[in-house]
């Protein structure tokens, strides 16, 4: 090899899946790129273990102490013989980006981080099906670290609804009327990869679509319509932190859940 190669350490939620998809789309454009004579070859690590072994070849602990999203290094041709091709590998470092700088090597060695998310069981759904829902949560390894009944105020309802819902006055009124029609049950749940796991279990907000995809999705089982679909779940880590601060300002009953103090939304 006569040219340097670029080594990237990347981090984000679902890093391996997202990067693999991006590289797949890149490879689909290879014929077009090759005509220009500037074809870029890429290789990525496929597991956290391989990522760690590759990372320690090219980065030091100091390199990995950062509050940014990536670290780049140019390697000489002598180092490049270890790779054979340009390398682009992702580090799976959990779902949170800490407000203080921390070592990415530490994340790679400690494994999946226990996180919290918020599940709101809408009026009517929890009173009919709470024992079964709690059983499902237990089977999916969720721990309940916060629970309360709540009558949703209009400003809270608006905060839970998507921008698409808010664009249609009739749909917005239907959601607001339903969510204010009775008491909701709010749960703060904890487990590794909690946010994504809960969203995957709930399924699409339309119960008919959920039923078509998988009848065991929770909205397929407990939902009636896009309005009365049974559940609200935090859609991202940042939204989960916001929801926890909103519904549990007094704190939670888990010593491990320090994100309410550490995170800034």
TrEMBL record:
Stretches assigned to the Nucleoside diphosphate kinase-like domain: 114-254
InterPro entries: NDK-like_dom, NDK-like_dom_sf, TXND_domain-containing
SMART domains: NDK
Coiled-coil regions, chain positions: none
Entry superkingdom: Eukaryota
PROSITE patterns for this protein: NDPK_LIKE
Pfam families: NDK (PF00334)
PANTHER family: DYNEIN AXONEMAL ASSEMBLY FACTOR 8, NME/NM23 FAMILY MEMBER 8
Family: Belongs to the NDK family.
Designated name of the protein: TXND3 protein
Gene name tied to this protein: Nme8
């Amino acid at each position: 090899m006569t040219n340097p190669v670029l080594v990237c350490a990347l981090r984000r939620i679902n890093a391996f899946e997202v990067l693999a998809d991006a590289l797949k789309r890149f490879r689909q454009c290879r014929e077009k790129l090759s005509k220009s004579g500037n074809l870029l070859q890429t290789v990525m690590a496929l597991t956290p273990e391989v990522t760690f072994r590759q990372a320690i070849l090219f980065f030091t602990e100091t390199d990995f102490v950062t509050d940014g999203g990536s670290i780049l290094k140019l390697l000489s041709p002598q180092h490049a013989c270890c790779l054979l091709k340009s390398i682009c590998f992702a580090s799976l470092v959990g779902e949170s980006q800490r407000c203080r700088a921390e070592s990415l090597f530490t994340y790679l060695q400690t494994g999946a981080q226990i996180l919290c998310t918020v599940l709101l069981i809408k009026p009517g759904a929890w009173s009919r099906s709470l024992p079964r829902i709690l059983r499902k949560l237990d089977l999916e390894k969720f721990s309940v670290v916060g629970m309360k009944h709540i009558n949703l105020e209009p400003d809270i309802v608006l905060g839970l609804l998507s921008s698409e819902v808010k664009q249609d006055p009739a749909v917005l009124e239907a959601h607001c009327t339903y969510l204010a029609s009775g008491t909701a049950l709010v749960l703060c749940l904890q487990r590794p990869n909690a946010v994504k796991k809960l969203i995957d279990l709930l399924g699409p907000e339309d119960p008919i679509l959920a039923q078509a995809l998988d009848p065991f999705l929770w909205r397929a089982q407990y939902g009636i319509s896009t309005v009365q679909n049974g559940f609200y779940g935090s859609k991202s880590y940042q939204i989960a932190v916001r929801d926890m601060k909103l519904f549990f300002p007094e704190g939670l009953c888990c010593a491990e859940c320090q994100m309410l103090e550490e995170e800034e939304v």
